[in-house]
Amino acid sequence: MTKQEIERTVSLFYPAGVKTIYINSENGTDLNPPYSQIFVSLGITSSIKTLNEVRDNLNNISYLSATLATTKSIRKEDGKYSNEILKFGEYTKDDQYLATSMCGGEFEKILDRAASIDMYEELMHSEHVDQANQLKEIIGRLDEKNCWEDMAIAFNIVDNVPTISQFHRYVNYRKDQETGAEYRIGILVEMKKEK
Asked: Which candidate, 23, 27, 25, 26, places its Cα nearest to that of 38?
């Protein structure tokens, strides 16, 4: 089983690109070939529901076994990566990482629905009408999809001009700024053991 084979198989259920990683360590220090487990990382904003759907589709393939898992990857001195599984099993949204912690507080303000409407009113009474209209459009999209629990609006000021964007509150990736370790939530895939 190769990473390319798994990528082709996953693309049948999940057309967006994926990152695949060989699991090559049991303790994060020693590298242990052969690599019989492959970790599949979907987009960092993929929901747990989407991860479960792809996992279930992989489990329907007679020779594959798949489960949700968390990996930790650390770049070693020789430039190779140590990839280990930290946890596997059932996951909920609470197992994902908050995007605000991933971004390191880059946003001046994170707006929920009420704060977004207040910001809209404030922008409408300023010289930033274009940004007010952009904010109104984003509020409308989030209202229409009823996804305020999973999404938020980021407000920032760059060169005295407000910038506004929506973002996912929960993500499947974070990087420890001190150690450089990368943590991902995704799908652990391996060949079923013959009986």
From this structure: 23
